[in-house]
Amino acid sequence: MKINVELSAPLVPVLCLSRREVRDIIRRILENLDCRESSLNLVITDDSRMQHLNSAFLFCPGPTNVLAFEEESRHESGFLGEVFISAQAVIRESILYSQPIFEHFVRLLAHGIEHLAGFEHGPEMEDRTLHLQRTIKAEEYGL
């Protein structure tokens, strides 16, 4: 399992998580999805880059909170693809939804990884995301 975490925006310092801890959260999500042998890239970025990606690939205006780009050969290679998360959106939405930043980060991360694993929006995905959000606790990471 190879997990690459790229930080181009300061979300992880706000969360006080190390790259190792973020990789551990990703590993736990992958195990829950029965994707133990899979790998992926996570890019934590800002609204500006998310706006560009959202416009270029989904033809939607404005930034979004999470985007997932599946690898076409994921079944053969084990590389699922890339998840992009806007640090600004995590912070902004956690305030808007009155949700701790850590919980909202896990929610968005799980959501993106679920898309890479082949899940589509719907009750099953929502239930799985909620389960992951409830089982990965901030206290386990000293928060």
Automatic annotation (TrEMBL):
The EC number(s) this enzyme carries: 3.1.-.-
Cofactors (names): Zn(2+)
GO cellular component, one term: cytoplasm
List of residues binding Zn(2+): H111, H115, H121
Signal peptide positions on this chain: none
Chief location: cytoplasm
GO biological process: rRNA processing
Cofactor note: Binds 1 zinc ion.
UniProt keywords, alphabetically: Cytoplasm, Endonuclease, Hydrolase, Metal-binding, Nuclease, Ribosome biogenesis, rRNA processing, Zinc
Top EC class of this enzyme: hydrolase
One Pfam family from the record: YbeY
Location relative to the cell: Cytoplasm
Record GO terms (molecular function): metalloendopeptidase activity; RNA endonuclease activity; zinc ion binding
Entry keyword rRNA processing: yes
Family classification: Belongs to the endoribonuclease YbeY family.
Main function: Single strand-specific metallo-endoribonuclease involved in late-stage 70S ribosome quality control and in maturation of the 3' terminus of the 16S rRNA.
Protein known as: Endoribonuclease YbeY
Organism name: Desulfonatronospira thiodismutans ASO3-1
